[in-house]
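Consider the tokenized backbone below.
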């Protein structure tokens, strides 16, 4: 397998160095495996995976708010 990988800065501009061949294929493979692992964890425990720029998954907040409203004793 072969591939090409070029990393980027946080603002989206590409870095000068690029990788190709088996090294790039290995980098891509590791990235895909990490993404799949994150999806598995998120499927088992929604809200468990943190997002770099947005904090926790938005649905986690909605679930917490819903539970806090439904667990209040009825007057």
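A designed sequence for it:
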């Amino acid at each position: 397998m072969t591939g090409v990988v070029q990393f980027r800065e946080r603002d989206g501009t590409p870095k000068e160095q690029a990788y190709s061949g088996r090294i790039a294929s290995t980098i891509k493979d590791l990235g895909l495996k990490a993404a799949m692992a994150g999806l598995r964890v998120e499927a088992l425990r929604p809200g468990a995976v943190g997002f770099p720029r947005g904090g926790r998954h938005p649905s986690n907040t909605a679930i917490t708010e819903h539970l806090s409203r439904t667990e209040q004793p009825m007057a």
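Strands lie at 4-8, 14-20.
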